[in-house]
Specification:
This protein is mainly alpha-helical. It contains four helices and two strands; from the N terminus they run ααβααβ.
């Protein structure tokens, strides 16, 4: 795997997911703050992202799919 892929923010999101398949708002918040360096981003904003962009049944559970369900 190329070195740039190992350091990719996309791959690093799996470290914040408890099961490697989805993230709740708190896990997404940790990822955005630490990996994207957005220190002012809130959990509420993460919930809005999930409500706006998640297309699977996970939206009802307040979760974001990482594997494209």
């Amino acid at each position: 795997m190329p070195r740039s892929a190992v350091n990719s923010p996309l791959l690093s999101c799996f470290r914040y997911s408890e099961n490697g398949e989805e993230m709740d708002a708190e896990e997404l918040h940790q990822f955005i703050q630490k990996e994207q360096n957005c220190k002012d981003f809130t959990v509420e904003q993460c919930k809005t992202l999930i409500e706006t962009f998640e297309q699977s049944e996970l939206k009802e559970a307040g979760k974001l799919s990482l594997i494209g369900r």
